[in-house]
């Protein structure tokens, strides 16, 4: 794991490996079932079409969990943005005061609610771009592999409003390296280390999901949008995110990146925001 931070895209093998991979993806994708998609509400952008992966991704991308778990204090009220089926919320709940997991996709939230084993974990179908609608504030807002979906012009003000003064935002998310072949191998290797061979074997049949043509298209569109917004390459993404969360600490984490930001305890050129914990005013920092 210590090698994770030094992981580089340059590890991606040359085009020799690219063509067979493309061929394999096309073949397997063509064979995969295409009738099982949960579409986002119509008003949402096309790139947010969610392909149900039956929790496979959530089970695999655990390499960054230590970063999040180690920073969650026992007294924290936590909001998990884009919680999917709540796999991470369920792991986190025993360590903190409460967890609210939100996701845009109703079927994912319904699944999380049905399978939840933690009395202090709750789940809500809620768009992260409209967090002003959510009551109360949180000590910690975190997000695991969801931020790349978000329009931060819409989401960042709500995130800041929902964080108590002095509260913390922790994000783990994808960039260029995550989608490289080396990135995929990194995810599989770390999942194998953490889940063990038997649980990985159980997931294998469902890995076909990675080759589903609609998923491949979804990833292509995600990448195109991230490139356009200059948050695809590591050397650009700090500039992008720090526009919304000034002085955020951004580092490589395996084949992903982490973002760590604290909301100032006092307003810094900020304004009073009228919704806070139990009706108390919260502080929303001006951008
Ligand atoms: C790649 S999955 C990550 C799920 C889970 N957090 C994990 O770590 O595996 C991204 C999740 O973000 C959700 N999502 C995308 N846009 C969202 C939005 N605007 N508001 C809330 N959730 C969103 C998707 O529905 C999906 O469940």
Task: Give structural notes.
This protein has helices at residues 15-31, 56-60, 65-69, 87-92, 106-115, 152-162, 176-179, 181-195, 197-203, 213-228, 234-244, and strands at 77-81, 98-103, 121-125, 138-144, 163-174, 249-253, 256-262, 271-273, 282-284. The protein has 287 residues and is of the alpha/beta class. It is globular. The chain has a seven-stranded mixed sheet, with helices on both faces. Strands 8-9 form a two-stranded antiparallel sheet. S-adenosylmethionine binds at residues 48, 50, 57-58, 61, 82-84, 88, 102-105, 108, 127-129, 144-146, 149-150. S-adenosylmethionine is lined by residues 48, 50, 57-58, 61, 82-84, 88, 102-105, 108, 127-129, 144-146, 149-150.
Give the number of domains.
1
Instruction: Give the name of the CATH architecture.
Output: 3-Layer(aba) Sandwich
Spatial shape: globular
Instruction: State the order of secondary-structure elements, H for helix, E for strand.
Output: HHHEHEHEEHEHHHHHEEEE
Total helices: the number is 11
Which percent range fits the helix content?
25-40%
What would CATH call the class?
Alpha Beta
- The CATH topology is given as Rossmann fold
Low-confidence stretches: 1-42, 270-287
- Arrangement of strands in the largest sheet: 3-2-1-4-5-7-6
Mean pLDDT, rounded to whole units?
A: 80
**Count of extended strands:** 9
- Give the CATH H-level superfamily: Vaccinia Virus protein VP39
Largest beta sheet, briefly?
7 strands, mixed
